[in-house]
Design a protein that fits this description.
- The complex is a heterodimer of chains A (about 260) and B (about 350).
- By secondary structure, chain A is of the alpha+beta class.
- Chain A has one domain.
- Chain A contains 7 helices and 12 strands.
- In chain A, strand 11 and strand 12 form a beta hairpin.
- The mean pLDDT of chain A is about 90.
- Chain B has a domain of about 60 residues.
- Chain B has 12 helices and no strands.
- Chain B is flat.
- The two termini of chain B are about 20 Å apart.
- The chains are: A alpha+beta (about 260), B mainly alpha (about 350).
- Chains A and B meet through helix 1, strand 10 and helix 7 of A and helix 3, helix 4, helix 5 and helix 6 of B.
Chain lengths: ~260, ~350
Amino acid sequence: MKKLWYAAVLVVAANGVVLGKAAINRHWGEVQRLDLTERELSLPYYQYHEGTRSLSLSWQGNVAGDKYLFHRSYNVKLSEASFAALGGAEVVCDADFKRQSAYVLLVYGGQPYTDLLAQYRALVQRAEAAYAANASKDNEQALERARRNLLSQEQGASRLIAVDAALTQEPLLERAATYDEPHWVLPARLSAVGQCKDQEVYVRLTGVQQFHLSRRQSEALKLSPSQKRYDQALDAPRYRASLAIGSLGLPWVERVAKCEGEC
Amino acid sequence: MEKDNRAEAQRRADSIRAFGQELQRLQSEGVLSLETEQLSRVRVYHQQQLESLRQGYDVDLADHARRLSLGMQVVSFLGAWALAASVFFFFQQYWGLLDTWLQVAVLVAAPLLSLVGVVYIAQLDGPARYYAKIAAMISFACLVINIALLGQLYNFPPSPTALAVFAVYAGLLAYALEVRLLLAVAMLCVFAFIGAQSATYSGLYWLSVGERPEHFLLPTLALFFLPSVISQHAYAGFSTIYRVLSLTALCLVLLVLSNWGRGSYLPWSHAVIEGVYQIAGFAVSAGAIWLGVQRGWPAVVATGNVFFFLFLYTKFFDWWWEWLPKSLFFLLLGLTALLALMVFSRLRRYTQTQAGGEQ
């Protein structure tokens, strides 16, 4: 029976550590806040038998998605210095590179978002020119797609843009200090894109990307899941959500509220 | 003889019953004749022994009782998993109806109350503890749900530390109630934790540990030899679980690396790495067979056999599948098995001769 006592002590200790960390995270030290909308914290689809709801992080790379991508891309174009810091094309293109732990810097709105919009507008102009030169079915569909993607970016896509990546957090925190806009450094895995010639990497976030909603928050947000259909532009956001990031880097949804009119 | 665990008690009971049956045969064939008083004393002594074993260890005293016991073990195994799944889905369905403070209270209380249940049931249960074992499985499920959902509530990123907690908890319950299934679960958590931690120290994302199987080599070897260092005599079947599960995990790692050299840290070409691990695979499985025969570990012998032939057939596939007619390929596999049977048969005759000579 002594072993069962030890088991009870283990349960109490494990829960104590988790709850202690959560308390320190929320009530001790600096708390960063990001005021986001459904564009950045979407409501995922859930099964009818699941009692809990959460918000899912939406973000995108700083490279416009091409015609085959569904509303957004996760490719991030790095500066020469950042790409060299990863090891250059020789290292990034190696198959082992994608197994390494890395970090990515996300910036909310501001110049990175404006630059991305400009890329999508350029894609629309290119599609219009192609259609004007040759009014084929393919060009017509490509133009429709380009316009739909631009509309999605303007009204519904995430404004959290990944602008840089590195193997450690320090260079990204230094770079983040140059932005006035809210920013966030998250753990990720990087892998090569194509032949690694364009200093682009494909980013997959590895940390928490679903944020729990309490019962009260879920009741305040009695909405259908965020719609994402490949043949329709993303809808405008229906709610605001304030995401707090505590001193230990653990995020939580502080507030959610439906938008009265436009968000 | 000291009877430290239920398996040994069962063997003692089987020996007594076998002795009684053989004695009857010898008497009926006129080979041996005991005086009535001697016979009576032996019978009384054996009856007392069997009664003591039944009360102390709930041993089976008849063949049909043993078959029922086996059935009860299977049913308790399935029942444990079903009840654990029921607890999990119950949480999943009704969770969102509770306020956060109540969710935390339920999560923390669940494994603690289930532990109280385990203690209470163990006191009422027989020596075989079928119900207490089910309760222990449910308690483990409650802890997993506790840690997982608490992490979800507060948006903790997944961490290998949780695996260490699961391993220790499962291990404590396994040793408290002699639950072999929980020991196996604890071992799997240990493999996963050590592998994940070593992956993290190497700069890998810990969930990518499966892409570098070499992280699992040391923990599997350590746990294989653990029963030789720390006696598991008092816990029926634990040594076998340690050895078989560790050997299986080790051989699986070698099998993967013998076909996927890219997953290795070794700074050689993939072909060389695969060759090295193929040789290692044969060596380890043959070594396991030899060690199992020497030490009297039949489960290790069986596991070594399985993997030896798996490695062999993998090589045959690499060499001959593409260009041999399929009928000939499978004929070769069958002939190899027959050859192995002949070798083992000779080996068995040799060891029996040796044993007969020693007697």
